[in-house]
Amino acid sequence: MINPVVVQHMRSKLEGKHFLKLADFTKAELMDLIRYTIQLKNMQKMGEPHPLLKGKTLAMIFEKSSTRTRVSFETGMYQLGGQALFLNKNDLQIGNGETIADTAKVLSRYVDGIMIRTYEHAIVEELAVNASIPIINGLTDDFHPCQVLADLVTIYEKKESFDDLKLAFVGDGNNMAQSLLMGCAIMGIDCTIASPDNSQVKQEIFSQVLEKAAVSGAKVEQTNDPVEAVANADIIYTDVWASMGWNGDLEERKKGFMKYQVNDALVTGAKDDYVFLHCLPAHREEEVASSIIDGDHSVVFDQAENRLHAQKAILASLL
Ligand code: CP
Ligand code: NVA
């Protein structure tokens, strides 16, 4: 049964807020979202209806492709009793030059929330400033907060707490890395990122991560050495070496990244019970060996499933 106390608690805290980046949330708010996710997940598994968003509509604007984000948001809205509209940029007037601000004002008259996947993070911020409804970031060049909420839920399920954990992110210092470091820093998970010199996380974002870590007590480190990063890790995480929108020489890039591949040799330094996470889609034999992503330590499909439950918690809280 839907617990009205939990629903009221979440709504009183987050109703009307946007979900643009994790830095906008406290540890307590994220912990509430994690617990709410687990409650909604249990209800879904038990077949208990939970139409918390009956009659509500979510607009979903996609400027980049997606499997998980699109399907989990659409299914999530359906399970919550509402509906979702898939809006490809090319089918909207944004594609013909209508401004983000005008789009925000118009959609605010029709729907109850907007999820957007786009390029510059500034676009999401501009949408939020001009909308009178909640905006959810479904991935920008800088952040992927919905993914990291699902990642935190997965870590919590597998490790039963966030205490005394070390996460190693190995690879490109991209949107995933930046969001993940932020999520870990807020929750108090120690983390080390190993990436090549020319692919580090943005300095300005790393400074914000360090500020959050100072509050939670998490130890956050940057290195070029994947072996050092993975030493004693409880969680190993990687992502593609070239994110959507990147258009350099891929073969050249792969050569510089080969030593960052998560493979059987690299993981020998991790704890015996480490878990392997990847936001997916994965490029097997590039950033991760098939033996790892298909191996016993991999939890990538539980993690992908948790996108659905975590986003339902976000939607039910914000809308
Ligand atoms: N992890 C993730 O966001 O996947 P999609 O690109 O398929 O949405
Ligand atoms: N870093 C990847 C994540 C995809 C979910 C990208 O931006 O393409």
Question: Descriptors for this entry?
Answer:
single chain, 319 residues, alpha/beta, Rossmann fold, 2 domains, five-stranded parallel beta sheet, four-stranded parallel beta sheet, 12 helices, 9 strands, 45% helix, globular, binds phosphoric acid mono(formamide)ester, binds norvaline
Task: Produce the secondary structure layout.
Elements: H1 4-14, H2 27-46, E1 57-62, H3 68-79, E2 83-88, H4 100-110, E3 113-117, H5 121-130, E4 135-137, H6 145-159, E5 166-170, H7 175-187, E6 190-194, H8 203-216, E7 220-223, H9 226-230, E8 235-238, H10 250-257, E9 275-278, H11 290-293, H12 300-318
Parallel strand pairs: 1-2, 1-3, 3-4, 5-6, 5-8, 6-7, 8-9
Helix pairs in contact: 1-2, 2-6, 2-12, 3-12, 4-5, 6-7, 6-12, 7-8
The structure holds phosphoric acid mono(formamide)ester (CP) and norvaline.
